[in-house]
Design goal:
This protein is mainly alpha-helical. Among the domains are: 60 residues, no CATH class; 61 residues, Winged helix-like DNA-binding domain superfamily/Winged helix DNA-binding domain (Arc Repressor Mutant, subunit A).
Length: 192
Amino acid sequence: MTTQLTPAQHAILAKAIHTSGGKIDWFPDHVKGGARKKVLDGMFNRALITPDGEGWCVAAEGYDALGLPRPHVHAEPVSTLEARLDAIIANAEAAQDDTADADAELEAAVAQAEASFKPPVKAPRTRPNSKQADVIRMLQRPEGATIGQICAATGWQAHTVRGTLAGALKKKLGLTIVSDKPKGGERVYRIA
């Protein structure tokens, strides 16, 4: 799998590898301040660079991303822990070839589980003594409520009432609000 690099990332990694033995000490002229931090964070998050004392140096994955050979690594593991880790990695790489069919089955099972997953629906929370609860009670009455009545009860302006009906009640709480306008009368809203 080839790692896609931005032009700035490519230039920084290449310059560090070819001129300073992997130590990052140069940035393009247009990469300054916050942009420099973002480029470094992006490369660190993708494991292309690693902290090196007070600065940064190119990690093995950075060499891989440029298609360059990795620097010489000690032939002897430094500790028994590293030797055990190397053995585990070698076993995992060897087992990876044998598990291609198992991986396909696992991926199919994961895809099926993800497709059937439905997030739990949370019940809407409304305080019983809030203006929103008052509006809901007014809309639940058999006669419903007009914009003017809701304005008088809550002290809101008409545009706030309309926004509450459309946003908080319909979209957020999922209530079905219907309206009808009798001849010569004011539009009446109610919860269906």
